[in-house]
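Q&A log
Question type: sequence-to-structure
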Amino acid sequence: MVRFTACIMAAGRGERAGGGQPKQLRLLAGRPVLAWSAQILADHPACGELIVVHAPGQREAVMDALGDLSARVRFASGGATRSASVRAGLAAVTGEHVLIHDAARPFLSAETIDALLDALGHAPCAAPALPVADALAREQDGEVTPVDRSRLVRLQTPQAFRTQALRDAFEAADGADFPDETALARAAGLEVRLVAGDEMNFKLTWPADFDRAERLMAGRGGAFVTGSGFDVHRLAPGDGLHLCGVFIAGDLCLVGHSDADAGLHALTDAVLGAAGLGDIGDHFPPSDMQWKGADSSRFLTHALELAAQTGLAPVHCDVTLICERPKIGPHKAAMKARLAALTGLRPERVNIKATTTEGLGFTGRGEGLAAQAVITMRSA
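Response status: OK
Response body:
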């Protein structure tokens, strides 16, 4: 089997897709788009190395988006144009064959990769292509001129090259920019072999594309699992307490070995339960002094990392806080935002509820506070 280097273009701004951040860093089914695109390439048995080209100053953000996968990646800082970014990535390639892929195409299939590698045995360049089904026209000043679509195709990525052929093409271009690498190859006189494209391998460009992608992810064959957690901490006089990662100033505190954040403890147990990894006491025993007064967000982050290693990603979480005091309502929005940041979920996939026990039991008497959490996770 032909070995290849995967070079992923993640240096664009992606403003047309909305979302307030580069589209390759936006979450799709609880995971950054870039991570989905990189994973299928990294998992292919012929992938020898993985290079990600990022925008200047975005290396840390890209590493965070890739998670554990970043350990396999070499990084390059991109340029002002696509051609400049591809040149930067190409400089880091050590293999004889390279696949240049858009980070914003998260539905790439192994079959497309296989077809491209096979085509490189017959030509120096290859690209997936799809026929044009719609009628086409050129519009100018309100005038519409039909365009013959019979010989037109839609080109996708990855576009595959014998590495030296692509380097030679860039050298011949003498700094000129091209819309994609097949245009560069043709300008250099290289044959481009077309292989069958895949309608699923569409590029996330507009807000509606993300809606479509979310629906597709929801329908994929990955299994869903659910975990639940429950935690209780005693209330005592103090100067404030932490709940769901938010500090609430007041005359009460929660008593515990760590910061006693019952909301985060319950959610941590839910994550561990979904992944079949025991409970919070197994991983952070109260007998271990390193956890004395610790920020409980560390517990949740660690549990999510362990779950990710088993192939699980969060889809939705729901936390219920049970207490007479403090009043939760004024802090719900901040709690929701904090849990969204910690879990990587969109805020609408996080829910915070509060209730009382109508004066009954230890919560009703104000002796303590309880929290329960449910999390839904999907295998990647």
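Response note: The two ends are 26 Å apart (CA to CA).
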